[in-house]
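During the reporting period the student researcher (J.K.) took over the structure-prediction task from the postdoctoral fellow and processed the backlog of single-chain submissions. One of the processed entries is reproduced below for the supervisory committee.
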Amino acid sequence: MEMIKVKHTVFSLPFAMLGAMTTAQGIPSVEKLIWISTAVTTARTAAMIFNRLVDQNIDGKNPRTKNRALPTGQVSRRWAICFFIVSVILFGYAANKLGALPRKLAIPAMIVILGYSFCKRFTLLSHIILGLSLAIVPLGASIAVNGNIDPPIWFLAIGILTWTAGFDIIYALQDVSFDREHKLHSIPAHIGAAKSLWISRGMHAVASTSWAIFNYELGSILVPWISWLIVTIILAREQWIVRNGGLERINHAFFTLNSMVGVCLFIGHTIEWALVKL
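J.K. obtained the following structure tokens:
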């Protein structure tokens, strides 16, 4: 569980539920919710294990990651491969249960989320690919509900992409020296911390704007706007913590604050839908 960072599922699952509920204009069937949750969880698990397998040698050399489960032998490579295969199979099964189009899109989706693990070897756009991996979550959930993408979901997805890319740039600040030494690509390794932080701020500004448009397109009245304001403050707080390139509170900025974003947006819309129905 530590190896695959299961607690990081809070980054994706609330957006899947929000995408599904937006398309259904309420709560989808229990069966849909179960299979959507299964697809999101198993896809994320497969991607995380694959990343650890691909990066095992790199992780073993990096002082920040050398104590991870695979480099230290706490988890065997064979066991990780088996867990990866099981996760992919379960993801495929869940996609199949969600309908014909999700079944057809399962392989392209898996290519995107697994392909991210190779990106830092040849492009500094790895942050964008990670964002795309998370952005397809509500798109897939929308398709799973009624076979197409509800238009407002695109703004939700754009916000997720830029939010994720923005915080991944911040996270990459920890490995600038290592990435340069081993010819790995990231925006901070290429242009330095100061310029990278401005790009991250721009990404988060786009994310906040996109989620505001999402609220507007849905005709949100009050509670989602409160959630949006809270999320915008969270993003501003995250940027403030690392404003000088300091990494002392990087875990607070990366996990503690970001884990609130999807949950906050989801709760805001859920409360308003419940109040409207009452």
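The committee noted the following: The chain has 13 helices and no strands.
J.K. will present the remaining backlog at the next meeting.
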